[in-house]
Amino acid sequence: MVALMIVIAFVGVWQLYTELSGLDAFVLPPPTEVVTSLYDDRGLLLENFLVTGGEMLLGLLVALLLGIALTVLLHLSPPARRGLYPLLVGTQVVPIVLIAPLLVAWFGFGLLPKLGIVAVVCFFPIVVPTLDALRRIDPDRIKLMRTLGATRWQVLRFAEAPSALPGLFTGTRLAVAIAAIAAVLAEYSGSERGLGRLTLQSIPQLETARAYAAIVVLMTFTLLLYAGLAALERLLLPWAAAPERTP
Amino acid sequence: MATELGVATPRITDGVVLDGVSHAYGATQALERVSLSARGGEVVAIVGPSGCGKSTLLDLVCGLTTPQAGRVEAPRAVLMPQRDQLLPWLTAADNAALALRVNGTSKHAAREKATRLLAELGLGGFERTRPADLSGGMRQRVAFARTLLAGAPLLCLDEPFGALDAITRADTQAWLAEALRRSPRTVLLVTHDVEEAVLLADTVVVLSPRPGRVVKRLRIDLPPGRTATDPGVVELRAEALAAMR
User: Fold this and answer.
1) Domain boundary pick from B100, B123, B151
2) Which of A154, B30, B38, B101 is geometrically suited to a Cys-Cys bond with B53, CB 3.0 to 4.6 A?
3) pLDDT, tens only, A89-109
């Protein structure tokens, strides 16, 4: 509620500023023009949104599968953890802004380099909180499972994996928040379609309102994705909301 | 007269023997030449000040750790850890049924069995409740049901009532004594509460501060249904406390 009021206030100030300052609409379009563009350009926006939204969702899916597989591997195998973890951190210090155009040069203008870029940016925030959740499990819980006769795999299935789910959700929410940035960055580096591409095109065409409209569409999608995940988490993990109580 | 609990009682003829057991973590000597034994069906309480290696002792008996010196002979043992360690995402019945699920019983059959035992343990109607909505005493009962359903002849209880308030604690102790009478097992009960030890055990073993050594062994020849104010209990409690000092 408060957030909504802040947004309304922000848009109001923006509108007022554009009207009072006498700035040209192609420098800073007033919100009303952005809304007009959202309507007038809806076909164009939708077409490009489907491309970018697809890149984000598929990229997140790849990141999620890769992230879970890596987390399980790192958790189960201390040698893998020692060997791979530094390399994973390494992937995050690669300046992706610089690598992106090179990937596009290598893999072409299609979907593949976009998926790669989104996945590389998004898997790390999935791995870290999930792995942390696995490591924070009370050792007594593992001992208990072992005396109940559980194999290593059963300990993972019955005790560890569910304990790590809240971490996985946290990580996925973080990944969603940056997936849009990654997808747009990938499109900037070379593409024929997509909201990032559309924004980049609209600026030299002095269609600034359309560029803002594209940004609004992307933000709305990301927020909905984030809210959807949060709702799914409340639905699937009601126990995680209540702090774990000990007698 | 209550009947046997609706859970298969395993053969409890095999006792537990620890012979000259020593164990250290790095430079910290946890246990030093500890020898003690429990006959099949006996309840042995191990008391001692904090950090005297009581939990290490249970790890050794449960086969979670191998002793650095000495010999441990124990049948299959199941641990009831400090803090109940109920899984917050499972209902009471599914928590109690955990051992059954681990050994391959179908979800439905396991749940049914657990529900029956929970009802007999005074938790009827709570089988679908999650741990966060159970009181401390109820959680301990669910944890005990989980321990029983593991079907092991030896139960290792690590400070099972440590986190309960005094009244719940007294109730739960009486409840445990009754449950064990109905479904007998060999029990190693680790506690820092001497009174609890005297109330529940057939034998009390007192350990010294770290490194843990056996300093006293007390037979508790009192009838069941003991209370904290029985003269016999008071006397043995004083004797055990004196040994701890």
Assistant:
1) B151
2) B30
3) 888 888 888 888 888 888 888
For chain A, positions 205-244, list CB contacts with chain B under 8 A.
Answer: 237, 239-240, 242, 244
Domain of residue B228 covers: 35-76+152-245
Residues B156, A147: C-beta atoms closer than 8 Å: yes
B239 within a domain of the structure (yes/no): yes
Residue B3: inside a domain, yes or no? no
What pLDDT score does B106 carry? 94
* Interchain proximity B101–A149, CB inside 8 Å: no
* Least confident piece of the model among A12-16, B10-14, B78-82: B10-14
Q: Are residues B234 and B157 in the same domain?
A: yes
Has residue B3 got a pLDDT over 60?
no
Same domain for B166 and B143, yes or no, is no
Among A144, A158, A245, the residue with its CB nearest the CB of B81 is: A144
Q: Are residues B137 and B97 in the same domain?
A: yes
Q: How far, CA to CA in Å, does B122 sit from each of B48, B91, B173, B176?
A: 32, 16, 14, 12
Task: Report chain A's C-alpha Rg in angstroms.
Answer: 22
Nearest to B149 by CA among A152, A139, A143, A147: A147
A237–B89 CB contact, under 8 Å: yes
Asked whether residue B29 carries a pLDDT value surpassing 80, the answer given is yes
| Domains of chain A listed by start with CATH number | 34-234 (1.10.3720.10)
Q: Give chain B's domain count.
A: 2
Determine whether the interchain pair B64/A147 forms a contact, defined as Cβ–Cβ distance below 8 Å.
yes
Distance from CA of residue A125 to its chain's centroid? 9
Chain A residues lying within 8 Å of B140, measured CB to CB: 247
CATH number at residue B206: 3.40.50.300
Question: Binning pLDDT at 50, 70 and 90, where does residue B2 land?
Answer: very low
* Encoded amino acid at A219, one letter: M
d(CA A246, CA B165): 12
Q: Looking at the domain assignment, is residue B2 inside a domain?
A: no
Complex-level ipTM: 0.87
- The token duo for B69 is 């010196």
Give yes or no for residue B96 having a pLDDT over 60: yes
